[in-house]
Amino acid sequence: MSSISSYVLAGYRRESSKSSESALNISSRLFRHRLLPLRHRPCLRGNAYHHDRRHEKRRSHSGYLKLGLALILIGLGFKVAAAPFQIWTPDVYEGAPTPVTALFSAGPKAAAFALLLRIFVSVPAATHYWFWAFWVIAALTMFLGNLGALVQTNVKRLLAYSSIAHAGYILVAFAAVTAMASDKPELASRAYTAILFYL
Predict the structure, then answer these.
(1) 83, 86, 121, 165: which could join 145 in a potential S-S bond, CB 3.0 to 4.6 Å?
(2) What is the pLDDT of residue 45?
(3) Where does residue 97 fall: left (phi above 0), alpha (psi -120 to 50 degrees), or beta otherwise?
(4) What pLDDT, in 10s, does the model give residues 131-190?
(5) What is the DSSP string of 148-197?
């Protein structure tokens, strides 16, 4: 529902070619990322004489968990415009009407971060597997967002790169949660508070 409303909002000025291009840009990128997880489930193979089936099944479930968490991270990274999934943001912000650009810079990102926070609270494996991913994504997002903003002359594109950089700042708090949850779980609540305050 969020994605479809984004297409409509980005392209509701039909007389503007930039607005239509913006809607097409966001819809094509979102569509490509929605098709990413469509794969056939691989068959579980094993020789009953040489492998313990329970161990193999446990290992395959661990692989599916890692794959599922990776796909969730990619989808939400795209939604919050985290690097390397931020490329769509400046073009869409520039082409969309100004009130829609203002909405895109805050509304969908806050909702995606709230969902990410919910996943962190309810799925302990996420904090374990996403540790290095969040550190790398946060550093890349801050670096690319601020570097891209330096050369902009269009205010909407500047807002887009500012939005990317701010996503990186919030991701630093998520990276802190992943570090604290493994060492001292009681300290993770401070990072959750920082995320909510920043949002």
Answers:
(1) 165
(2) 42
(3) beta
(4) 888 899 999 999 999 999 999 999 989 989 999 999 999 999 888 887 776 667 677 777
(5) HHHT--SHHHHHHHHHHHHHHHHHHHHHHHHHHHHH-GGGHHHHHHHHHH
The tokens describing 3, both together, are 């994605």
For 100-145, the pLDDT digits (tens) are: 888 888 888 888 898 888 888 777 777 777 888 889 999 999 999 9
> What does the alpha-carbon distance between residue 177 and residue 158 come to, in Å, rounded to a whole number?
29
Q: CA–CA separation, 117 vs 123, rounded Å?
A: 10
Q: Rounded CA gap, 72 and 76, in Å?
A: 6
- For residue 116, CA distances in Å to 19, 83, 91, 134, 198 come to 30, 16, 25, 12, 14
Instruction: Copy the structure tokens of residue 79.
Output: 């939604």
Tell me how far apart the alpha carbons of residues 130 and 179 are, in angstroms, rounded to a whole number: 10
Please list, in sequence order, all residues whose beta carbon lies within 8 angstroms of the beta carbon of residue 27, skipping any fewer than 6 positions away.
3, 7
Locate the domains of the chain by residue range.
2-39+52-198
Task: Report the distance separating Cα 175 and Cα 46, nearest Å.
Answer: 38
Distances (CA, A) of 28 to 16, 25, 33, 158: 19, 5, 9, 23
Rounded CA gap, 165 and 159, in Å?
10
Half-sphere exposure of residue 80: CA atoms within 13 angstroms, side-chain side: 28
